[in-house]
Amino acid sequence: MSSTQPQAPSLVFEPRSGETWRDPFPMYKALRDHDPVHKFELDLDEFWTLSRFNDVFAAAVDAKTFSSAQGLTLAYDDMDRLELESPIVMMDPPDHTDLRKLAIKRFTPKQVMAIEPLVRAFVVERVERLRERGEGDVVIELFKPLPSLVVGHFLGVPEADRKLFDDWTDRTVAAASVGDIASGGDAIGELVLYFSEMIERVRKNPGDDMISALVHARPHGGEVSLARILGFAFTMVTGGNDTATGLLSGAAELLTRNPDQQVLLAKEPRRIPNAVEEFLRLTSPAQGLARMTTRDVTIEGKTIPKDRKVLLLYAAANRDEREFGPDAEECDISRKIRRHVALSYGPHHCIGAAAVRLQARVALEELIGRCPDFRVDFAAGAFAGGNYVRRYISMPFSATGAH
């Protein structure tokens, strides 16, 4: 008696954007199960994806084989489009390591904890506004402006300039999210001019901010170049905003989908820090970023040639049953998570990880503490464009759970 193996489905990775971000997870599961090292074509170019946790993790920590120096998008001309010197996220060690050491001093858990009162005051004001009205758009009111406040603070943007900064940020993030930096030309130009002028000011009058720290640093006895400092500011604006919004909006969706978990958090708020890790794992706001192979590399029996862009599918890896168990797709705020790749890993582990966690913890503490029965209408929510970050741009909110 013969037995037949089930046929693997015909799989093609399809970049998502806007509404197609609503449910990419079945595609990720199919890739993990049937074609974990997947080759596909886009605009006549060849690309690859990795979707299993161990493969994504190994690539993330191996900067020598999987280089960031040619950009993080599915474009072989990434660096030609970018008119700034390589931002830190597009650098490999040792240059990346040197700049990261200078910056990380401003993002230690102790440094980040110092801004908790600022973050909490902002969150309380916005949550109370929603609670008093009974409803509103939680992304527009809270999840979008909060990360901008935090990024602006670390960069030393004064309150008086915050509205300008927020506008430039919106337009720059929109351009970066679709992988077309050039389309944000005016905003990026204004942002670069603003920080160029700030750099000159803080040469004489340094503050307690990231730009001042970089201006006055003397790695190996020399100054950090103007281009490097501008590239760092650009990275913080583009990388620190939309991903945090994606985490916060995704967490609200997960709680509404899993009301038992929300009840547990309301009863036992001490569980919120662990819940943040589960929300990071399941939302993985940066769903995937690309690397370039520096040599032929064989994974799962397939050889990816040298000089190919490989998309590390963090969101797929973070739902891999091989790492997280048979219930990997389910939300369990009590799950013991040893590691995940929502904030990448290795040399490019998110430099603002502590700040992201702080925002999520405080936002959840105040939302659940003040509106324990809140619900979001995620089905009516809208997603941002762009092929790399999954985030809502609007999401109806009800303080009492009644839509």
Structure description:
The radius of gyration is 21 Å and the shape is globular. The chain has helices spanning 25-34, 53-61, 78-81, 95-104, 109-113, 116-133, 138-143, 145-155, 162-177, 185-204, 210-215, 226-257, 259-267, 272-283, 314-317, 321-324, 353-370, and strands at 37-42, 45-50, 66-67, 135-137, 289-293, 297-299, 302-304, 309-312, 375-376, 382-383, 392-394, 396-398. It has 17 helices and twelve strands. It has 403 residues and is of the alpha+beta class. A five-stranded mixed β-sheet has the order 1-2-8-5-3, with helices on one face. The protein has a three-stranded antiparallel β-sheet with strand order 4-12-9.
Key features of this structure:
403 residues, alpha+beta, globular, disordered N terminus
Short description:
The chain is 48% helix and 10% strand.
Topology:
Elements: H1 25-34, E1 37-42, E2 45-50, H2 53-61, E3 66-67, H3 78-81, H4 95-104, H5 109-113, H6 116-133, E4 135-137, H7 138-143, H8 145-155, H9 162-177, H10 185-204, H11 210-215, H12 226-257, H13 259-267, H14 272-283, E5 289-293, E6 297-299, E7 302-304, E8 309-312, H15 314-317, H16 321-324, H17 353-370, E9 375-376, E10 382-383, E11 392-394, E12 396-398
Parallel strand pairs: 2-8
Antiparallel strand pairs: 1-2, 3-5, 4-12, 5-8, 6-7, 9-12, 10-11
End-to-end separation in angstroms reads 57 Å
The structure class reads alpha+beta
Beta-strand proportion: 5-15%
**Helix percentage:** 40-55%
Q: Count the strands?
A: 12
Number of helices: 17
